[in-house]
Amino acid sequence: MDLTTLERLPLWIGGRAVAATTTRYGEVTNPATGEVVRHVPFANAADVDAAVKAASAALPTWRAAPPLRRARVLMRFRELLEAHKKDLAKIVTQEHGKTLTDAEGSVTRGIEVVEVATGIPHLLKGEFSENVGSDVDAYSIRQPVGVCAGITPFNFPAMVPMWMFPIAVACGNTFILKPSERDPTTSLRLAELLAEAGLPDGVFNVVHGDKEAVDAILAHPGIKAVSFVGSTPIAKYIYETGARNGKRVQALGGAKNHAIVMPDADLDFATEAIIGAAYGSAGERCMAVSAVVAVGDAADPIRDKLAARAKRIRTGPGHVADVEMGPVITCAARDRIMGLIDKGVAEGAALVLDGRKPAVPGHESGFFVGPTLFDRVLPEMTIYREEIFGPVLVIVRTDSLASAIELVNRNPYANGAALFTRSGHAARRFQEDVEIGMVGINVPIPVPMAFYSFGGWRNSLFGDLHVHGMDGVRFYTRGKAVTARWPDDGSAAPGFHLPTLG
Known about the structure:
This protein is α/β, with parallel strands linked by helices. The chain has two domains: 273 residues, Aldehyde Dehydrogenase, Chain A, domain 1 (3-Layer(aba) Sandwich), CATH 3.40.605; 185 residues, Aldehyde Dehydrogenase, Chain A, domain 2. 38% of the residues lie in helices and 22% in strands. The protein is built from 16 helices and 22 strands. The strands form six sheets. It has a seven-stranded mixed sheet, sandwiched between helices. A six-stranded mixed sheet has the order 9-8-7-10-11-21, with helices on both faces. Helix 9 links the parallel strand 10 and strand 11. 51% of the residues are buried.
């Protein structure tokens, strides 16, 4: 079906589109115009239960399927994703607002996780030790957890779900996706492509909704594991509630990502890198650079270069070819960001570039905020302490690399941090001393490739395991240790004592 023409979106349960039983619906808007483009159901507990029943029914056959058979379904899914990449990007741009180039790039990063998941026969291999005792072997195996759920954010409606479900289903689990209600259509298109790839009915399900659906997922005894990406307060709630209900939980929270610029850095290179990292996707990335830490003599030059480059950013609707930055997701998000800019001015930060009234002809009802730059920001100011999640970049000044690292380590968030320098010594000291989950050296957005795992520290992650990569495999499986002996005549049967090997 053409999902983009539907007035009301369906759920996806048991391999097909189904109407929700709920009577509550929300509006899905095009952020560039403010226009309501369709409505999304806010699923209730009965809708969630229907998805769990479908996933539970599909689980025994799917978990028993050889890993290679599961991998081949994902291989076909990957081919379909490549064929439909531009169409998926158009849906993302319509509902989220990011540029088509950015949207397509995010789909590509999701495809990379699917590529890793196709190697699941290798990734699930356990360990084997022969003859640990007389005629006794020991080995480990990894088995699927069961029905899993993913609760994903609005900023990456294709990529973040694909951080989760390809690994989960490759490991033999079934999956229920609760995407953001702000841009939900992409998830349904992914479900259609999975079905076309040959994924059995019920292995992948989509349930839209708000807090009612989330709470139903967290309370349902049939769901064994929950993955989440979103803000820190909600991540903490997801982790505590899910764990209290006996579920395995990984909950990725917010961020305040820093880029330290040393006096010896290539400032032209650093400027271009930071501009893209700060203002790309209108700053609505959990890995966006939102704070530049300018060390010593780097401060004035990097401020001037950032200001000059940010002034040239073209803001507009994401489908226009030469637009570099689209709108933010909702009117409420725009108003919140503008309120934080107001607060930055009131608290005494130097407003170098003001994005509160961007000119976007023909799109006066769109949710636009222009590139905004503050200098001489202090750590106690609101615009430094809070995750703005918009196109606002702040500059904090320090006198040394040591004080810059100390500043980063004091921040309650610990998702990503970058250092721009020509000094190998400074780079090594930074990577050793900074207390951050993902580190970049002259790389502003150090998102690991899919065969590594993504996640932060402190208030940026609740749980022990990160997403995708080997941490993803560990999260979606349980380890089992086996000790085996095959005696011929029973003469080696153990007695009443605790058996020892050796």
